[in-house]
Design brief:
Distance between the termini: 42 Å
Radius of gyration: 30 Å
Shape: globular
Strand content: 5-15%
Number of helices: 26
Length: 808
């Protein structure tokens, strides 16, 4: 699967995009410059997939329609494809840059050597795109069969039933489905490919600034990977990453306008196609940047008409053809224009800043941010270095702007100026979340202008004398960007491959047997359990009947808070394997258990409990609580059932020794984890009441490698064990060890610096505890008549309930 997703899939995307680009080139009279074939082809595929997924009968055929378009293009443009291949072998700067951009964008996954996706807990929005891409290809926008009471259905309806931009999703879903790949593992390679697709237009723009060879290659690579863009690619901001090559392609077509504008009207098709793809991917907001390109071309075309170089009739036909292309290719958006406007306005005006702690500063536009997180400011020496590099980049940007004017690249200068103006206008009219997206789309443009400063030094009469200065400036621009990206690579968090593979097997085993209540705070489960109609009490869209199971968004789910009647709608409950959590009510029995999850099934005909009460405190206090439950009995045949708590030995971390810099951080609810911020060792003692085989459980978000030792003996190496959100503790699969009764010592060591991805990622410890290896995951349950409730006293329980079902 790893090779298929990171190698075969991008090759398939290249073939699809190049083939589609050649088809567009043929239809437009050979007007597509070679560096733009990839991005123009991707635009054509977006348009095709948008149209096919708008028709329910055609949606499942989307992958094959995309393949047919690519094959037609390769057949029609075979000669040009061969010529381009031979040219790439002779002068392969652009292919080398594109491959490098892909490899750097996918570096955390590539270095891990397993299917995954990066910056796992930065933002869960990509979970929506996974289910959206899967659903649109399979069902179009037909939501009639969905259960809108559960989270899965609500997410799909509230996003894709409201004209939410889906161009990136349909391209992603269609292309990955063609190879039969799980979307969850193809997601990061797709984003990396789309970022690499921006290399072509950047290369053309760098060439228009008169950069050549290695200089152009370095400028292109830097413009594709500025720090903020890299951050958004890492956490899978698929809309922005897909829209970026479209925006840059519009600029490249403006720069190359002499080859197509005012000539045969069909030559305007690629521009309109890219415009439409950008709108489909990002929404109507893309029009702000597209308008910059349209205005420049309108001025140029008007001047040519006035000068008599182009007839008014030809210009009118070209504009009409471009308008028709824009209308048809983005037809699903135009048909729901009112809803699309509402979505754009909602995004622009939202007061929800997502995962941003504060508005992003405009200094991020220059591509440098020497911190592992784009959300946090550097400190100390990195802060000083960031400021110095930003000042250097600012000076180079001013020099580059002057250079573009000096070489009389007026159309390019106009596009650059209007694009920056459009970004400024958008920034002033939107709130924090949308402002960050604006900075992402603008940063490559600013970095390209900064490289114009290098071009200015290389193009002047004192070129030989200024060559060392140009080299130093290039080193500062490229070094600042790549160093910023390296820090983010080091801090990236990777999705846990084994846990999601287990969810996939669970989905295959129980497909169609939902609705399913899912108690883990992990919205990616909606994709892996898409055949189980999942409802998550702690998701953004919780089923209303069970929402109180979580005290609030980000709090752990407690099944004991759910009214017994509300559970009747769920034949299945999926829980994390964690003995410290309360088991489901007696009406459910354990059907399936693996390393991470348990599946509980409701017994056929099991009625809802009359009363269900969570028990707490010492056994004496619980005895009184059990008596209170028993006194509610009234109907004949009722049973009093109690779930016995497992024997659990907590390691007292509050008294543990650890590095002073390991501080505590409150991240949500009652959670207060120990942040293992630097290499070091935690050591704590605990006492076992009896000898035997015990299971050691570790709770926490742990991306870098930590070593678990008991009594000086190494028992496990833990890494990449993360939950879907940092707000809820993650439970690592247990490690079995044979121990004697009495006092023991456990230690947990965080290793030092390494080049492994995520070595600087999440490292938060919440708890360590032990349970006997023979602990029954189902309880055990004890059942008596309500009148004999005192027989239950003297033990520790999780809950007690009154039910007409014995539940054993």
């Amino acid at each position: 699967m790893f090779v298929a997703t990171v190698l075969l899939y991008p090759c398939a995307l290249v073939a699809l995009s190049v083939g589609a680009g050649l088809a567009v080139d043929r239809c437009s009279g050979g007007s597509v410059p070679a560096p733009l074939l990839l991005s123009v082809g991707a635009a054509a595929l977006i348009g095709l997939s948008q149209l096919s997924t708008a028709v329910p009968a055609l949606a499942p055929a989307t992958p094959y329609l995309m393949a047919a378009l690519a094959l037609a293009g390769l057949a029609l443009g075979g000669r040009r494809a061969l010529a381009l291949a031979r040219r790439a072998l002779r002068r392969g700067w652009l292919p080398a840059v594109s491959v490098s951009a892909y490899a750097l964008a996918l570096a955390p996954v590539l270095a891990a050597g397993r299917p995954s996706f990066s910056s796992y807990m930065a933002l869960a929005d990509s979970a929506v795109h996974l289910i959206g891409a899967d659903f649109l290809i399979g069902h179009s926008r037909d939501f009639a069969h969905l259960d809108l009471h559960n989270s899965y259905g609500q997410f799909l309806r509230d996003y894709y039933g409201t004209s939410y931009p889906s161009g990136a999703d349909t391209l992603f879903g269609g292309s990955a489905s063609l190879l039969g790949l799980p979307l969850i593992w193809a997601f990061q390679p797709f984003n990396a490919f789309m970022l690499a697709a921006a290399a072509g237009p950047c290369w053309l723009l760098a060439g228009r600034m008169r950069l050549r060879g290695a200089w152009a290659a370095l400028a292109t690579l830097t413009a594709v990977l500025p720090a903020l863009v890299y951050a958004y690619e890492l956490f899978g901001s698929i809309k922005e990453v897909t829209a970026l090559p479209m925006l840059l392609t519009l600029g490249a077509l403006v720069a190359a306008h002499r080859s197509w504008l005012g000539r045969a009207p069909v030559r305007a098709i690629p521009f309109a196609l890219v415009f439409a793809a950008g709108v489909s991917a990002l929404g109507l907001a893309f029009g702000a940047w597209a308008l910059a390109a349209v205005l420049v071309l309108a001025v140029v075309l008007g001047e040519r008409v006035r000068a008599g170089a182009v007839s008014a009739r030809r210009a009118t036909v070209a504009v009409a053809l471009a308008g028709a292309t824009l209308l048809v290719v983005a037809l699903p958006t135009w048909l729901e224009l009112h809803a699309a406007l509402q979505v754009a306005q909602a995004i622009a005006s939202t007061g929800n800043s997502g995962n941003l702690h504060a508005p992003l500063r405009a200094t991020r536009l220059f591509g440098v941010w020497l911190n592992g997180s784009y959300k946090l400011s550097p400190a100390g020496a990195p802060l000083l270095a960031t400021h110095v590099l930003v000042v250097v980049a600012l000076g180079s940007t001013l020099l580059g702007a002057a250079h573009v004017l000096r070489i009389r690249a007026h159309a390019l200068a106009g596009w650059l100026a209007l694009t920056l103006l459009a970004s400024l206008v958008v920034t002033e009219s939107v709130t924090t979340w949308a402002d960050a997206k604006t900075l992402v789309l603008t940063s490559p443009v600013v970095v390209l202008i900064a490289w114009g400063g290098v071009a200015a030094l290389l193009a002047g009469p004192r070129r030989r004398a200024l060559l060392p200065v140009a080299g130093l400036l290039a080193l500062a621009l490229a070094g600042g960007v790549l160093a910023s990206d390296a820090l983010q690579y080091h801090s990236s968090d990777l999705a846990p491959t084994a846990r999601y593979s287990e969810l996939a097997s669970l989905d295959g085993r129980f497909a169609g047997k939902g609705p399913t209540l899912f108690t883990d705070f992990d919205e990616y489960s909606m994709y892996e359990l898409r055949d189980l109609d999942v409802g998550g009490p702690d998701f953004v869209y919780p089923p209303l009947a069970v929402a109180l199971a979580a005290g609030g968004h980000g709090d752990p789910v407690n099944l004991d808070r759910i009214a017994p009647d509300a559970l009747l709608a769920y034949p299945l409950i999926v829980t994390r394997r964690d003995p410290s959590l309360s088991r489901p009510p007696a009406a459910y029995r354990l059907l399936w258990q693996r390393a991470y999850y348990q599946v509980w099934g409701r017994r056929a005909g099991a009625p809802a409990a009359e009363l269900h009460v969570a028990l707490s405190g010492p056994s004496s206090a619980q005895c009184e609580q059990i008596g209170s439950v028993a006194r509610h009995a009234g109907a004949a045949g009722e049973r009093l059932i109690a779930a016995q708590a497992p024997e659990l030995v907590q390691v007292p971390l509050a008294r543990a020794s650890h590095p002073a810099r390991w501080g505590r951080q409150r991240t949500g609810g009652a959670r207060e984890g120990l942040v293992m911020s630097v290499p070091g060792t935690l050591s704590a003692s605990f006492t076992l009441p009896s000898p035997g085989v015990w299971q050691v459980w570790v709770q926490g978000q742990i991306m870098p490698t930590v070593t678990l030792n008991v009594d000086g003996r190494r028992v496990a190496s833990i890494a990449g064990q993360l939950d879907g959100n940092s707000l809820v503790p993650n439970t690592v699969p247990p490690v079995a060890i044979k121990l004697a009764a009495g006092r023991h010592r456990v230690s947990l060591t965080r290793s030092g610096f390494s080049l492994a991805p995520g070595n600087g990622g999440q490292a938060v410890l919440d708890a360590i505890f032990l349970t006997p290896a023979d602990t029954d995951p189902q309880g055990p349950l004890r059942s008596v008549t309500p009148s004999r409730w005192r027989a239950l006293c003297g033990r520790s329980y999780q809950w007690a309930e009154l039910s007409r079902s014995i539940g054993t």
